[in-house]
Amino acid sequence: xxxxxxxxxxxxxxxxxxxxxxxxxxxxxxxxxxxxxxxxxxxxxxxxxxxxxxxxxxxxxxxxxxxxxxxxxxxxxxxxxxxxxxxxxxxxxxxxxxxxxxxxxxxxxxxxxxxxxxxxxxxxxxxxxxxxxxxxxxxxxxxxxxxxxxxxxxxxxxxxxxxxxxxxxxxxxxxxxxxxxxxxxxxxxxxxxxxxxxxxxxxxxx
Length: 206
Description:
Blueprint: H1 22-31, E1 36-40, E2 43-46, H2 47-63, E3 71-75, H3 80-91, E4 95-98, H4 105-114, E5 117-123, H5 127-136, E6 142-146, E7 161-162, H6 163-168, H7 178-181
Parallel strand pairs: 3-4, 3-5, 5-6, 6-7
Antiparallel strand pairs: 1-2
Helix pairs in contact: 1-2, 2-3, 4-5
């Protein structure tokens, strides 16, 4: 006998929403638009600005062909770009692979291949390891350089475009439905995903 709770209660927007952090950011931007969301050195962004940047990242990725289930890898420290990737990649339907910055080139190369990375966002602080990894791996992702304003050491740019320029190529589509942008969790069941160990890694590196 069917339960009465299963009768005429098919999933719809009124009774079912995917579990996603995107709605949290959308609400924060709507309710606290002028409150500080991100502080990085001398720079800061409000929730309105942070949300707009993530939408531009999603748009720029989509313009480069990133679609549902495509992997976007990042080799980043705990920087604004890392935060933006956690939202912008999901908005584009992609899968975010945050690669531990302490790994050697061989493991980074393996991870890029195993995850079938289509895009790689990399901080120039780790340019030597990433350069060696790109030379060793089969994957040929679009490489986007992130030039961290707080990093003053040596490091080369490896890609064809810098992160801020890449964002400027995106569109802040404020009226795009969150339901259309939301990352569909069932994409995980249809592809392989590299898993990074949590022990000994920073939160932003796992």
